[in-house]
Amino acid sequence: MSFDPCFVVPVYNHGTTISATAAALRRHGLTIYLVDDGSDAATATTLDRLAADDPLIRLIRRPRNGGKGAAVMDGFRAAQRDGRTHALQVDADGQHALDDVDRFLAASRQAPDKVVCGVPDYDHSVPRARLYGRYATHVWVWIETLSFDIRDAMCGFRLYPLEPTCQLISEVRLGTRMDFDIDVLVRLYWRGVRIVNLPTRVSYPKGGISHFRMLRDNALISWAHTRLAIGMLLRMPLLLGQKLTRGRN
After folding, report:
1. Per the confidence metrics, is the pTM higher than 0.70?
2. Which residue from 77, 110, 116, 170 has the highest number of Cβ atoms inside 10 Å of its Cβ?
């Protein structure tokens, strides 16, 4: 598999943080797809300036806010149309340790058919409710995949091979908001795409912008797990067969 990576960054009202994120990514010399998911005027102006000043930045505009997942999927489609083979998904709010980008790129280059997933190493800034809430998702994902191969299904810092990912996007209606990261990863795993787990530091900057809505997004995530659990039951023979095959190898 060839390896021509890029960055995909969903942006929604991150006008105060996106410039620093783009600057940190720029040094890698790769195309940066900034997907404006219906941001406010101030953020839109910042994005226009970034795109005008840097030939590596490609700005994609959505007419209205559709959610993180919708923005990421638009970025993936555009990257594949441009000939990119892999995309590193990065949040715009400064939570991710962008010093780890080289590690993710190296891991993907060595295993280009796999998804390289960030496994968060949180500092003291993480909200306790968000931290504890993730454990329920961990358990559900282990059930949905009949494995412990996915160590964290909610971290938005991960590198995808675009061919299987865009094929999945074209064939399955995936979650479009905070449920996307779980939905796409479990379904890729069902299709035989393997996972590389990489620890990475994650922080919640003081005054940072979070678009996680406790009631709405927890409801969406719960519904995603319901669908995935049903899907697991339907696929159980296949998943067990995959597990036995990997065990022999």
Report:
1. yes
2. 116
